[in-house]
Amino acid sequence: MTPMLIDHLNRQRLERAAQGLTRQRRIAESPCTPRQWVSRKGQPAREMLVFGSNDYLGLANHPALIEALAEGAHRFGAGSGASHLISGHSRAHAALEEDLAAWLAPSIPDAAALYFCTGFMANLALLTALGDTSATIFADKLNHASLIDGALLAKAPMQRYAHRNLNVLQRQLEGCTTPIKLIVTDAVFSMDGDLADLPALLALAERFDAWLIVDDAHGFGVLGEQGRGALAHFNLRSERLIYMGTLGKAAGLGGAFVAAHPDIIDALVQSARAYIYTTAAPPAVAHALRVSLRLIGSDDGNARRAHLRQLIHQLRMELAALAAAHPALGWRLPDSSTAIQPLTVGSNEAALALTASLNAQGLWIPAIRPPTVPLGTARLRITLSAAHSAQDVQRLVDGLTLAARELA
To answer: What letter would DSSP give residue 88?
Structure first.
């Protein structure tokens, strides 16, 4: 007799398959670059042109970071051996946090920073530590899953407002009776690529004695002067800002950090379970991240961001023309000025058919389906990197053009 749990899981698996929601992993056999050798179970590896990574500046395979990672391993060893509060907090971690605090100082006066293993853990730590019974959390409905889960795990009640609808948020703040108010938002929304109105959100925070928590996973390194992120992009400065940035995307390595008023950082060290009860990341990664910061802020970093902006413009012009040429397909290009350029196609079946056509042409772009996005808005989440060329983008457009003819 099949155990009840296995029978239950098999029914769920069949239901997902019937709805076109089955997820499958591929194996990257080569470094994270626009051209990767990729394999799938039971199939040989093949070279693909990839538009699916978040390596926005093309640093994941940068020789300087590879060298710094090796140097860090020779200097600090392979692992940290313990949590930060036991014995795992190395000089590499401390130096990185000092660099990150200085990085955010133009936006957050007297900023301090805390390094985490992942962005998901950083958001869980933030919201569970600050979101106690004295607080209310106000969250954009399209926030990342880590912000949603952090709010659900917090003791504070959560009120969600329609995406970027600040009129609703204002009414919620007006009716709030808790002494602490936490406004929580992505800076760049990961599935749509659009920007939160951070200046208006900060104005509401100042008006209603609230704090603004900004998840800048997809803006750090890409937006603002020297790639300092969304706060710099909008030229914001306030001690009411609490900033989370990830270091596995534009920075090319791994981990995340929170930058905020020193008292907030101390509160996380003292009470954030997602920080206290986990082994510290390998110090070699922290060591290499200091080199990444220097690259991001350098002339080379500026050139990479300028090239990325050119690719974004090229792709948007081509996709707009393609969607207009095939109106029956219902393809839609949301308003995004960032490296995330989603092509919304509608049904799960349409998204899977499109990605299958591109896959046959050697193009790897992931199909994003519910529950990651709302029902009926399945899409190809096209992400651009400074490591792509104009020719790479043209190949993608040619592939989509052929797919459109096949599917029309």
So the answer is: I
DSSP string across 106-137: TTSTT-EEEEES-HHHHHHHHHHHH-STTEEE
Q: Which residue has the tokens 């769920």?
A: 12
pTM of model > 0.85: yes
CA dihedral 384, 385, 391, 395 (to 10 degrees): -40
Amino acid 327 reads P
- CB-based contact 287:68 (threshold 8 Å): yes
Report DSSP letters for 255-303, one per residue. -EEEEE-HHHHHHHHHH-HHHHTSBPPPHHHHHHHHHHHHHHTSHHHHH
Helices 63-76, 283-296: crossing angle, 10 deg rounding? 150
- Strand ranges of the sheet holding 367-368, from the earlier edge strand across to the other edge: 340-346, 378-383, 367-368
The percent of residues above 70 in pLDDT, for the chain, comes to 100
**How large is the average pLDDT for residues 250-264?**
98
Rounded Cα–Cα distance for residues 321 and 317 (Å): 6
Render pLDDT for 273-318 as a digit per residue (tens, 0 to 9). Answer: 999 999 999 999 999 999 999 999 999 999 999 999 999 999 999 9
Sorted by where each starts, the structural domains of the chain and their CATH numbers stand as 21-50+300-407 (3.90.1150.10), 63-296 (3.40.640.10)
Quote the CA–CA distance of 248 and 36 in Å, as a whole number: 18
